[in-house]
Amino acid sequence: MNKLILLVGILLSQVLIGQNSKYLSFELAGSGGIASFNYESSFHSRKSNTLYYRLGFSLAPIDRNNGSALVFPLMLHTNIGQKAHKLDLGIGQTVSITTKGHIFFLMPVSMGYRFQPENKRHYWRIAYTPIVSYLIDFQWQHWAGITYGLQLSSKK
Prior knowledge:
The chain has one helix at about 1-15; strands spanning about 20-30, 35-45, 50-65, 65-80, 85-100, 105-115, 120-130, 130-135, 140, 145-155. It has 1 helix and 10 strands. About 10% of the residues lie in helices and about 65% in strands. The chain is mainly beta. It has a single domain, classed as Porin (Beta Barrel). The chain has an 8-stranded antiparallel β-barrel.
């Protein structure tokens, strides 16, 4: 739990300091469940590697015992590649709060392809996004997602 608090603190400090690029994205399936809206921002760039974080929100039906859940995915991603075609790798933590008052922690992982045309304000990503349960017992749930993102601003 302390590591999660530290990670959130680091990411929030990056929001306040400023970043290279900011995006709003919609992900169908993927790390947020059925669909999620996300805020993405890069915080470190090198020649062929960009690091960024993603904060999201989703509402997902669970089951009769748990009701629906508010899902908050928090992801760290890296893009590897110099041109429009990039390898996209990510890992994160989701916090899900159900309408019945239960809290779940899951770890989404992302391995995919990101197409981000140069000099354009949008990108597409398709990824294998398994969801890993690790607190009580270990489970690996196969999942995938497709994302469309629109750039909000760019650091001058």
